[in-house]
Write a structure and sequence with these properties.
Belongs to the PAL/histidase family. By secondary structure, this protein is mainly alpha-helical. Helix content is 55%, strand content 5%. The mean pLDDT is 94.
């Protein structure tokens, strides 16, 4: 685990940065004194209900369609164990560690609000798991995005009980009991309502949303960089990105994207070379001219998603919940629709940003549309194929992204004997968005790789300082134009430069911060 200042987890909302640091960077967490006090206070109310004759859902009854059964006090510890064991029914590939850690953190935050009735000692185990880098093995399938991310969170709850399978900080897969013992963590026997409180939240889908917003914010800056490089390589014009033209349609994302492109293309010798009156083209193709409109619409979609995510980070999701006046009430706040919708919205935006990037790449390879570049940017077209098949790879990914853009949230499948008869499928929306973001990363990398080669082929004319800085970055690991060579490693090298943020950082070193 990385050394870092501990992230305080209390009743107050977590920030996006908190989630990224804990989930991705391995930062430790610390339950606040306020959190301990709130949990202790609400626990008293749950224990009162557990001793009362009046049935209380999840405390003295069964769950879902089995909520009509009153559970004898002697069976209530077994009730919680049985709930977690039976609901830890995930299947398929293991979910990424960063997703599971985000889910664990977000559940810990809900416990810390004091609205779930969980004992502080139980929350402490979850805190300790995060700090020890012990990550429950959670599987791809098992959540319908309603009644919470039940199966994924149940695998976490199983670990708190000392059961199931985990991945340790050094990457080993071990039985939970063994890993907890090695780290000095004592598992707990769940008390009344605790099993339900540990699994009844939208934390998995929310964690994926926060991670996606973080990554997509960087990728949209990359899209402005790659678009600017393509405009320059194709002898396009930056006049259409002027502030007065953009102001006629005052979408904030569009304005930001256009400003980025103006800055990236400022001082371009390549652009200056065709502003001598010899250029007969009246306007550029849509994939160049409309780049800020598309990337800008994606930015505005991310802004909406961030608004929803911020509200969710301020939420306490459980059923039933303990209210500040001591009432314990059933509710439907575990329904994942708000998160599911924006996860789907983002997948649509991702597919479109990738689609326009692929069109620009294809344009650079076609002698009929590339304004003087060699066919496929090949050294000896016919003998060499240049970037012909790199565009095929892009096209295959874009086609996949269109399928991933089909919304999960419009689907619903009844469960629990029709008690849970409408679900959000938000977990599924999050899973496909993660695949989509990987695809967009690869599509943008291929555009950057192709545009860099095209810019080199415009020599002796020099690129702008912003785009030129990206070309220079690539040339540290990828050679310039020349005869055909093994292309896959070059693509992967640029994928890593895009994914790490190095492409954006190189451009910003020359232009200043991008919006």
């Amino acid at each position: 685990m990385h050394d870092s200042v501990a992230t305080a987890v209390g009743p107050e909302p977590l920030t996006f940065g908190d989630v990224i640091r804990v989930a991705r960077d391995g930062a430790p967490v610390r339950l606040t004194d306020d959190a301990i006090a709130e949990m202790a206070a609400s626990r008293g109310r749950i224990e009162d209900l557990a001793e009362a004759d009046t049935p209380a859902y999840g405390v003295s009854t069964g769950f879902g369609a089995l909520a009509t059964r009153h559970i004898d006090p002697s069976l209530r510890a077994q009730l919680q164990r049985s709930l977690v064991r039976s609901h830890a029914a995930g299947s398929g590939p293991e979910v990424e560690t960063e997703v599971t850690r985000a889910m664990m953190l977000l559940r810990l935050h809900t416990l810390a609000t004091g609205h779930t009735g969980v004992r502080p000692v139980t929350a402490r185990v979850l805190e300790s798991l995060l700090n020890a880098g012990i990550t429950p093995v959670v599987h791809e399938y098992g959540s319908l995005g309603c009644s919470g991310d039940l199966a994924p969170l149940s695998h976490v709850a199983l670990t708190i009980m000392g059961e199931g399978v985990v991945r340790t900080a050094d990457g080993q897969v071990k039985p939970a009991q063994e890993a907890l013992k090695q780290s000095g963590i004592e598992p707990v026997e769940l008390a009344a309502k605790e099993g339900l409180a540990l699994i009844n939240g939208t934390d998995g889908m929310l964690g994926m949303l926060v991670l996606a917003i973080h990554d997509l914010t960087m990728l949209l800056k990359t899209a402005d960089v790659s678009a600017a490089m393509s405009v320059e390589a194709l002898l396009g014009t930056d006049y259409v990105f002027s502030a007065d033209l953009q102001a006629l349609r005052p979408h904030p994302g569009q304005a930001a994207a256009a400003a980025n492109m103006r800055g990236l293309l400022d001082g371009s010798g390549i652009m200056a070379s065709h502003r001598d009156g010899s250029c007969t083209r009246v306007q550029d193709a849509y994939s160049l001219r409309c780049a800020p409109q598309v990337a800008g619409a994606a930015r505005d979609t991310v802004a909406h998603a961030a608004l929803v995510a911020g509200r969710e980070l301020a939420s306490a999701i459980d059923n039933p919940v303990v209210l500040s006046d001591g009432r314990v009430e059933s509710n439907g706040n575990f329904h994942g629709a708000p998160v599911a919708y924006v996860l789907d919205f983002l997948a649509i935006a991702v597919a479109d940003v990738a689609s326009i990037a692929e069109r620009r790449t294809d344009r650079m390879l076609d002698v009929a549309r590339s304004n003087g570049l060699p066919a496929f940017l090949a050294a000896d077209p016919g003998v060499d194929s240049g970037h012909m098949i790199a565009q095929y790879t892009q096209a295959a990914i874009v086609s996949e992204l269109k399928r991933l853009a089909a919304p999960a949230s419009v689907d619903s499948i009844p469960s629990s004997a029709m008690q849970e008869d409408h679900v959000s499928m938000g977990w599924s929306a999050g899973r496909k968005l993660r695949r989509a973001l990987d695809g967009l990363t690869r599509v943008l990398a291929i555009e950057v790789l192709t545009a860099a080669r095209a810019i080199d082929l415009r020599a002796p004319h020099r690129p702008a300082s912003g785009t030129g800085a990206v070309v220079s970055l690539l040339r540290e690991s990828v050679s310039g134009p020349g005869p055909d060579r093994f292309l896959a490693p070059e693509i992967e090298a640029v994928v890593e430069l895009v994914a790490s943020g190095a492409v954006v950082a190189a451009a910003e070193a020359a232009t200043g911060p991008l919006a």
